[in-house]
Amino acid sequence: MESLKRKILNEATVLSEKIIVVNSFLNHQIDSKMMDEIGDEFFELFKDMKATKILTAEASGIPPALATGMKLSIPIIYARKTKPLTMGNDVYKGIARSATTEQTLEIMVKKAYLTSKDRVLIIDDFISEGYATKAMCDIVDQAGATLVGIGTVIEKTFLNGRKRFERPGVPIFSLVRIKSMDKGRIELE
Amino acid sequence: MESLKRKILNEATVLSEKIIVVNSFLNHQIDSKMMDEIGDEFFELFKDMKATKILTAEASGIPPALATGMKLSIPIIYARKTKPLTMGNDVYKGIARSATTEQTLEIMVKKAYLTSKDRVLIIDDFISEGYATKAMCDIVDQAGATLVGIGTVIEKTFLNGRKRFERPGVPIFSLVRIKSMDKGRIELE
Q: What is d(CA A177, CA A1) in angstroms, rounded to the nearest whole number?
């Protein structure tokens, strides 16, 4: 996705050796046209997987997941990081670790919405160290559902996060791969 | 929006006199097709307002805001409830109060993304007691931006939340209005 690559090279800033700031188009302010294109890209990549649900995590995973869900015409579920009163106790849980805060956190999905009949596509904004994606894979497994694919907008390949969750037969697609952020300079693959 | 009304009457449950649970299609699992229609509805209602940005609050405001932003081809900004490391300190703040937890919370928007030149449309999932919408109006005012309209998926009109933020010349549209939730029964206008 050339438009996304240009955005990253022009607007993203490097905060530390593992963290880039993409607040202007992906994580706080959202470029809606770009998000629509991201939905189209994931649609093309995953349209034959017969996915029944998309799973993501709040909050920054919601835009790419929804844009994709609208193209595939399937529901999305966003795992919650805090449990609202309305959620109840009947939940699947995964343990994630934030790349930005270094804290572990629990993500939760209500059991009612993910069953062994579901074919699940995981969509998120980043694969960094892979903890969040792994937590979502764990939730899919707890539900006895079938994981059909994993899509991310940006993958920091130099952190090798996919080693935590890659498995045979489950394609992982990242729209942009960052191979290095040394000395404040973003280098794409 | 008849499809949305049916969903509410068939799937929503009443948790307390002020709270309904819409986890199955609006707040945790998202019906993507319905969200696409919600975007179409808000597009029709607000397409002549010359909005330059949509403002919402994480996490549950993101789906209707993004669906609308994709139709209007303008960026959305989601106010954050916790400040990630990537956000910096240069932020506008509003004080909201959650209808579900009864706690006050700060919502924040990075100053760089909202200026006095912007014409802002606020989109959210609920107007309950009106605190969250009021907090977003305060942020628009701090930026010196022009508030051009407010749209919400569901308004609980019996809580009269709009009294906190209504102002002359700023239309408020709610797609579904709940006039009563007495004795666990949802009654629409």
A: 11
- CA gap A165, A159 in Å, rounded: 13
| Residue pLDDT, tens place only, B83-136 | 888 888 899 999 998 766 778 999 999 999 999 999 999 999 999 999 999 999
Cβ contacts of residue A51 below 8 Å, gap of 6+? Answer: A72, A74, A119, A120, A121, A148, A149
Q: How many residues does chain A have?
A: 189
Pairing verdict, β B13-14 and A91-97 = unpaired
Task: Summarize the confidence of residues B157-164 as an average pLDDT.
Answer: 97
What would the pLDDT profile of A20-29 be if each residue is shown by its tens digit? 999 999 999 9
Q: What are phi and psi of A130, to 5 degrees?
A: 90, 0
With an 8 Å Cβ cutoff, are A29 and B72 in contact? no
Residue B51 CA to residue B29 CA, distance in Å, equals 29
Report DSSP letters for A26-87, one per residue.
IISEE-HHHHHHHHHHHHHHHTTS---EEEEETTTTHHHHHHHHHHHT--EEEEBSS--GGG
Q: How far apart are CA A183 and CA A162, in angstroms?
A: 24
Contact list in B for residue A75 (CB cut-off 8 A) is 25, 29-32
Among candidate residues A32, A62, A61, the one with its CA nearest the CA of residue B75? A32
Give me A164's structure tokens.
Answer: 């935590």
List the domain boundaries for chain B.
Answer: 2-188
Q: Cβ atoms within 10 A of the Cβ of B58, count?
A: 18
Interface list for B 44-83 with A (CB within 8 A): 53, 58-59, 62-63, 66-67, 69-70, 72-78, 80
- Could you please state the CATH topology (level 3) that the domain comprising A2-188 is classified under: Rossmann fold (3.40.50)
* SS3 state at B14: strand
**Are A42 and A64 a contacting pair, CB within 8 Å?**
yes
